[in-house]
Amino acid sequence: MDLSAVLLFPVHAVVWLYSLLSFLPWYFLTGAQKKKALAKRVKSRSTTGQAEGPYRSVDHFDSLVTKDFPGKDTLDKLFDYAVERFGKADCLGTREVLSEENETQPNGKVFKKLILGNYKWVSYEEMDIQVSQFGSGLSALGQQPKNTIAIFCETRAEWMITAQTCFRRNFPLVTFYATLGEEAVAFGLNECGVTHLVTSVELLETKLKGVLPQIPNLRHIIYVDRKSISSAGYPQGIQIHSMHSVQELGAKPENLSRPIVKPISSDLAVIMYTSGSTGRPKGVMIIHSNLIGGMAGQCERIPGLGSKDTYIAYLPLAHVLEMTAEISCVTYGCRIGYSSPQTLSDQSTKIKRGSKGDCTMLKPSLMAAVPEIMDRINKNVMSKVQEMNCVQRTLFKLAYDYKLKQIKKGYDAPLCNILFKKVRALLGGNVRMMLSGGAPLSPATQRSMNICFLLLHLLLSSMEEKVSAYRFETTYSCRDSPNTSGGYKKHDKPHPRGEILIGGPNVTMGYYRSEGCINEDFFVDENGQQWFCTGDIGEMHPDGCLQIVDRKKDLVKLQAGEYVSLGKVESALKNCSLIDNICAYANSDQNYVISFIVPNQKKLTALASQKGIEGTWEEICNQPIMEREVLREIKEVATSIKLQRFEIPVMIHLSPEPWTPETGLVTDAFKLKRKELKNHYLNDIERMYGHK
């Protein structure tokens, strides 16, 4: 992205602009009075009158949100209602692939580059026909109501068509991340006794083919691509079909007339296998009413959600954040354009230089993002700002600081927004709201995104176990945390603190076929209310806002007795320009913190050049002098944001390879897999703790 034209105002305009903004009556023009009143009001209050709660939203204090529309208590009813209202309107869009070519990088790596065409759209009525035919075809292939069917596929229109098919015919859908390892997928398919599987040709041939002999119950594999593949090399007893051929089978009159067994609200809708930050993946059981309740609270918080909105879909649909976001969009008549992390923007890795990425073509108004992606967007913007000339940087900083001041007062700064037009173009120029969940979002990134992209943020709790609850569309409570979690207590002053428990219609039914400790995350109280123990540490403020301040699993007690929150250290140090990703690590038998770091290649390479260091990227990362330079900047950042001495890493290791879901070191939501990271860097841990 070229931001050189962002700030081409003459220097003398600065004084004029600042004066004008200071005296115009933005208080009334931007509705600041109403915004300030909403910000200051009490958002939730205790149901018992006790400071520790449970707390519930004042908007739904007497009864929690359970559904979007009266009588629409299952997912198939929501879809039928949407088809009835939006019939001929665009629903699902996919870009044509015009051409592919390989591009060799200077380091010898070969990247596939795409030239993509326009979006081709399927209307609500056309989608309804495809759903009906696919469901009839699956029934003709022996799929029975209340018997599980699995999908192991990338995010695409066929995924949503499959999901709506299963919801309509009461086929519980078992979902797997496309990046999940083949052994984990085989485990889940066997655990659920799946006989029918929907997948893509790429995943079938690269991941599934080798483990199919380990899945004895599997009888039918349906691939979503419009191509033909040979059944040679596949185990006997497994039939391979294209999705199109199954739809053709379902279109036959004798199959279309097959009876449909509709679900009820308490029926199982999804078994969602988590990628898991530790251990073997677990299947979370989600019934129809869980999803309906979670989405109702989510949609209520999106102003004006409707047919004028366009949503860009690129996160894994096997994650509850993306799945509920897309189902909500279908329910309210929004268009959904499909994308991928590799084709999202003009600068994405699979987009050929000079051609347009998906955001530029689609111009979405809504999107979801995990904090890791938002951090990358923000760092890219700020990096471009640093490359501006002195005048441009000064103007940008003036506009940024002024708008920040106005936002804190409840105002807006419309003329400043003109300066951020080029920045907004990164995401197509029309994004008005972003859903964020899956991991903590740093305040600095959220503030920057709000200012530069003019966003309203809908912050979601997006663990599969509690669907996508927005703030207080559930009941929240705190309980005393174990001593290993730093001694947080629900009677702490001035604010109660402790582990956050969630109760409400969106809390799921627990883990599939799991016994023992992992199902202790769920319990039912004396009133029959299902609760989920999140593992997050929260602090309740007087205005009813709940702030997540820690994570139980992230706390380590050092040898001298100090508690270190690894997540806090990581969130703080991501502000360092040399760092793309970081994992803090500590042992209880040691008295200092160490870290593994994925450095920013552009910044570190430039720093190496200043120090007279040359070589490959791997050689630069392995230079002790570069470790010392990164550690020096870490200490400067840590000091400026007032980290405690014992929280600042003493030694680090620079990793030349980024952490992606494919490496198995982060989840599909880009949360750190601490156990896997520890094992991966075991030799470096021993080195760093052996030599201080």
TrEMBL record:
| UniProt xrefs under SUPFAM superfamilies | Acetyl-CoA synthetase-like
Keywords associated with the record: Fatty acid metabolism, Ligase, Lipid metabolism, Membrane, Transmembrane, Transmembrane helix
Query: In what residue span(s) does the AMP-dependent synthetase/ligase domain sit?
Result: 104-453
Q: Which GO terms describe its cellular component?
A: endoplasmic reticulum; lipid droplet; plasma membrane
Which EC numbers characterise this protein's activity in its record?
A: 6.2.1.3
Q: What's one GO MF term for it?
A: arachidonate-CoA ligase activity
- PROSITE patterns, from UniProt? AMP_BINDING
**Top-level EC class as recorded in UniProt:** ligase
Q: Set out the biological process GO terms recorded for this chain's protein.
A: long-chain fatty-acyl-CoA metabolic process; neuron differentiation
tRNA processing keyword on record = no
Q: Which one Pfam family would you cite for this protein?
A: AMP-binding
Q: Which InterPro entries match?
A: AMP-binding (IPR020459), AMP-binding_CS (IPR020845), AMP-dep_synth/lig_dom (IPR000873), ANL_N_sf (IPR042099)
Provenance organism: Sinocyclocheilus anshuiensis
Record protein name field: long-chain-fatty-acid--CoA ligase
The residue ranges crossing the membrane are 6-29
